[in-house]
């Protein structure tokens, strides 16, 4: 199924011009650091981390061209040259008509949700994402998962686990009526399922269905170029098309998008909302001045918009994407060869350890993925994050914990940052923790924030 060759054929299409030195720490130091951080890797100090796989968000390395672009920042309050460059780039690469910059993805989600959602509306999506679902709920909407069942099984080898189950969507439409469903939120790739792609075929069927019912499609296009790579590698009829062409085709099947440019688009901060409908644009550009800033900067400096415009162009390069995902697969294959259970097929932005199978002696109330992330940090200074019961949070109506089927530890790979030798260190550390896994004990939550608890929750060892 994986057509992607491993070995060295994915080698980087760039060379290194500047380096950032890292602090080396001892296991005793790391034990103290993680205890002080309440066993939450989000609360560690970055200087105590050796290889930082917490997230691929805003952690990528910019190119010399992007850095040069920073010097071209036009910091005018209104009508910055860099905004027009960004707008032109979004139209060129993605094809949307209107662009509103935002400080990052969730800024766009907030404005989009407030623009399109009325109280009591139903928002179907191919699995939830933490900030996306929260903004839908804060706007009065109710999220419904319509991803195919295979996505909830860590070891199911379906090549497009991000696909929407049209029967699940149709059941929602029949139950609530299409008027209650302003849009379907489609993520490319699906972060919470392990960076799993949606196929073009599925998106086309979804477009036909939603057109018939007058429902919009809004993309969460955070990792669209990575999704395009999987379509190119796995879907019939796309092997000769470029990432750029596939990206454009995905966007053509949708009505708008929210973007966290901190991922695909290779910048440290930034995002945007893109729309085709002039009425939606008018409402959204009214709201952006309340929450982000004027519609020609949206919370960003001119230089940030310039770096984003250049990063978007670099992100749709075939050579870049082959190396980016090649590195992720290189790491995943190594970890798999040690017999460690991971989510498969290997996704676009990281390796997801299956904590349920890794630590079968801990039930979900003992936060196995949280405990595993802490153990990995102590072993080698590799920082990962929990994607399981802590990230899932509680049902806002009943206050009960969600019990997600997937209990994962995410090793997220920043773009253009770490070397193949770093990948080897990570794999060896995962193996070491796996060998000694019986000694890992569970955790109890001693502090729980009200929103997005995984960021700031604190734990103690049981
Ligand atoms: C990161 C992310 C977001 C939110 O973007 P931020 O820039 O972190 O605010 C939304 N959706 C997905 C799939 C993401 O990965």
TrEMBL record:
Keywords of this entry: Lyase, Pyridoxal phosphate
Modified positions (N6-(pyridoxal phosphate)lysine) in chain numbering: 263
Keyword set includes Transcription: no
Pfam families attached to this UniProt entry: Beta_elim_lyase
Catalytic activity reported: L-tyrosine + H2O = phenol + pyruvate + NH4(+)
GO biological process: tyrosine metabolic process
InterPro entries linked to this entry: ArAA_b-elim_lyase/Thr_aldolase, Beta-eliminating_lyase, PyrdxlP-dep_Trfase, PyrdxlP-dep_Trfase_major, PyrdxlP-dep_Trfase_small, Tyr_phenol_ly
Cofactor(s) this protein requires: pyridoxal 5'-phosphate
Domain Aromatic amino acid beta-eliminating lyase/threonine aldolase: 52-428
GO molecular function, one term: tyrosine phenol-lyase activity
E.C. designation(s): 4.1.99.2
Tree of life domain: Bacteria
Enzyme class: lyase
Cross-referenced NCBIfam families: PRK13238.1, tyr_phenol_ly
Entry's family note: Belongs to the beta-eliminating lyase family.
Protein name stated in the entry: Tyrosine phenol-lyase
Organism, scientific name: Candidatus Opimibacter skivensis
């Amino acid at each position: 199924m994986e057509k992607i060759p491993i070995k060295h054929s994915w080698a980087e299409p760039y060379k290194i011009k500047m380096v950032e030195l890292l602090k080396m720490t001892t296991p005793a130091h790391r034990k103290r650091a993680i205890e002080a951080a309440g066993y939450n890797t989000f609360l560690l100090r970055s200087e105590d981390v050796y290889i930082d796989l917490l997230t691929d968000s805003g952690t990528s390395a910019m190119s010399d061209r992007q850095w040069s672009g920073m010097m071209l920042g036009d910091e005018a309050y209104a009508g910055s040259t860099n905004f027009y460059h960004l707008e032109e780039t979004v139209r060129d690469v993605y094809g949307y008509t209107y662009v509103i910059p935002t400080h990052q993805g969730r800024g766009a989600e907030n404005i989009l949700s407030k623009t399109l959602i009325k109280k009591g509306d139903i928002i179907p999506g191919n699995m939830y994402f933490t900030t996306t679902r929260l903004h839908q709920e804060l706007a009065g909407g109710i999220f419904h998962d319509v991803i195919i069942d295979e996505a909830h099984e860590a070891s199911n080898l379906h090549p497009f686990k991000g696909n929407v189950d049209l029967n699940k969507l149709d059941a929602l439409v029949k139950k609530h009526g299409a008027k209650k469903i302003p849009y379907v939120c489609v993520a490319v790739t699906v972060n919470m399922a392990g960076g799993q792609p949606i196929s073009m075929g599925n998106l086309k069927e979804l477009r036909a269905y939603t057109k018939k019912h007058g429902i919009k499609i809004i993309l969460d296009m955070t990792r669209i170029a990575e999704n395009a790579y999987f379509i190119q590698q796995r879907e019939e009829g796309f092997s000769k098309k470029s990432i750029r062409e596939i990206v454009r085709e995905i966007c053509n099947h949708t009505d708008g998008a929210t973007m966290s440019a901190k991922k695909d688009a290779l910048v440290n901060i930034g995002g945007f909302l893109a729309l085709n409908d002039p009425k939606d644009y008018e409402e959204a550009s009214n709201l952006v001045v309340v929450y982000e800033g004027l519609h020609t900067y949206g919370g960003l400096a001119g230089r940030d918009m310039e770096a984003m415009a250049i990063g978007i162009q670099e992100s749709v390069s075939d050579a870049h994407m082959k190396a980016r995902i090649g590195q992720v697969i290189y790491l995943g294959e190594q970890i798999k060869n040690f017999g460690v259970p991971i989510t498969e097929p290997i996704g676009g932005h990281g390796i997801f350890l299956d904590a349920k199978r890794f630590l079968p002696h801990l039930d979900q109330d003992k936060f196995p993925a949280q405990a595993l992330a802490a153990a990995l940090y102590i072993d080698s200074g590799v920082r990962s994050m929990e994607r399981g019961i802590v990230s899932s949070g509680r049902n806002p109506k009943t206050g009960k914990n969600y019990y997600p089927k997937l209990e994962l530890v995410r090793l997220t790979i920043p773009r253009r940052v770490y070397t193949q030798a770093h990948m080897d260190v990570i794999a060896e550390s995962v193996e070491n923790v796996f060998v000694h896994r019986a000694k890992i004990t569970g955790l109890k939550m001693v502090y729980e924030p009200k929103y997005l608890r995984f960021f700031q929750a604190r734990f103690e060892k049981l």
